[in-house]
Amino acid sequence: MRISIALVLLFSVYLLFTSCSNTETNTTLEEELEALFTNEFSTNEPGGSVLVKKGSEVVFLKSDGVADVNTQEKITENTIFNTGSISKTFVANGILILEEENLLSIEDSISMYFNDFDDVAIANRIKIKHLLSHTSGLPDVRKVSENEAFYLTAKDLENFEPLKRVTSLNFEPGEKFEYSNPAYNGLALIIEKVTGEKWQSFIEERIFQPSGMEDSRITDGPYPENGVAHAYVAVGESYKEDDYGEYPTFAASGNGGVWSSVLDLAKYEDAIREFTFLSKESVDKSRKVFQYSNWHDTIPPNIGSSWFILDKNKQKNDSGVKIIYHTGSQGGFRAFYVSIPEKDLLYIALFNRPVKGLTDFRLKGIELFKKYNWLE
Asked: How confident is the model at residue 24, as a pLDDT?
């Protein structure tokens, strides 16, 4: 029996739309996502942009609020936000590109790239993979609150430099998880040492361009003031700007310097899944939890090369699918990026002000995917 291609396509469309609706409540996924975010947005205040993509189709795209409270420029799906720590995924992928080209190994001790640690034995014990997975044990000894004026313009080098002066570690590398922003300043510097060019230029050439991320940019000294959203925090009934120039360490871009839109980040995820700038082997390795033989933290390991990973039916994940994600917070900017590759799902949100219950937004979105049978 032969079935026409048109009939197959028609049936596929039917399945897509029925999977987006709930017959018990007569609601759609789009309506529930709209309701989830409606109360958070206000037309004349800082807001954000949210995207849900399934396969090649953007099934939900909402932008509201203003990118600049002074000009009242409206936020759109093309508005560029600072992505905060989502930036770390770009630095990590840059390291993996160099590993693929046999220019470094994540098993290298960082003493190969930094020969000026006060205690050389410390640098010898820490490997690149420990910086990637926030397991180096290096204490963050920067005195940011005491030297805010300095850290307003301090770049990657100035932010990593204090870590070279430590005389002891918080724990042995690989034993525990301790989130570290300056670790990624160090990784950015390693890219520069290996390539002989600014790490920002390397990421633009090797990731942005092949991914088609034409609107994205990276902090490199001066703040990109034009064509981007400014970030704010609420002060009484008004908003105060809180980004470059107001928030210390903003110029240290290895840990949070990437600026992008939800549409460009969707292109980034497409490029990752299509192995555009990294091989399948490297992508799989980057999104696989590092397992250390000396691990004895109170929590199980849950991080790969920058990505946080919730494996199927493991701690804090009853979705039945592997969830890969990263969040971002810098100044008044907030963000999250959730990828579920096996179901071809992507869920991204970028905001230019703090959002109450940001984690809840992320988790509720995943719950809705499950409710509408997108995770089966």
From this structure: 53
